[in-house]
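Field notebook, page 199. I keep forgetting to write these up properly, so this time I am using the form the group agreed on. The chain and the ligand, zinc ion, are recorded exactly as supplied. Prediction of the bound pose follows.
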Amino acid sequence: MRGGCRNGAGRPRQHEKVEDYNYLSISYLCRQGLLMPSTKGTLTWTRNGEKAGKVKIEVDDSASSLILMYSVRLRGAENWKEVNQPIELSATACHYGGQRKWFKCPQCGRNTANIYITTKPACRKCLKLVYQSQSETLVWRIWNMKRKIEGKLGTALQKPKGMHRSTRSKLLDRYLKLDKRLDDIFYVRIEKWKAQGWW
Ligand SMILES: [Zn+2]
């Protein structure tokens, strides 16, 4: 993923950084109660005291999808683009009961914890974003461990034919723990941004 990336024109191009984008975090929305049925709200991002983006959210009455509405202008671009993007929500069962919610990436359909705000909102993988922060190595390690488990279970984390229930259970448990760790890293960052007036 990292380095040596080429764009369509065949020129080497640096990956853009996760930190360059505003994003919606599913756990943040959950904690704030913004995924309840029929919720409407506006999230704003500020950086250094200046407005850095605004997204309107409307959750449907069964809380199975939400619509993101915003205008966005890519760096260097002249015109603003109006985006009106439905995002499906899905849930996977947690090993110890309860549910974990996900966004379904509108581009690839995979479950994702974060949707990045750009002209075509999507998950980090679709946008080929990399992490810049000090926790980059750790994030990548956790990410790769998750990928390995996804390789065994599939991205929908279903039990493959022939796999023993307890094996699946162990893998899923491990997956959710890794996920929680990633979430914590992001949570720390969002809190930090909040403290700095970034969120
Ligand atoms: Zn995607």
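OBSERVATIONS:
- The longest helix spans residues 165-195.
- Residues 1-13, 194-199 have pLDDT under 50 and may be disordered.
FOLLOW-UP: compare against the apo run.
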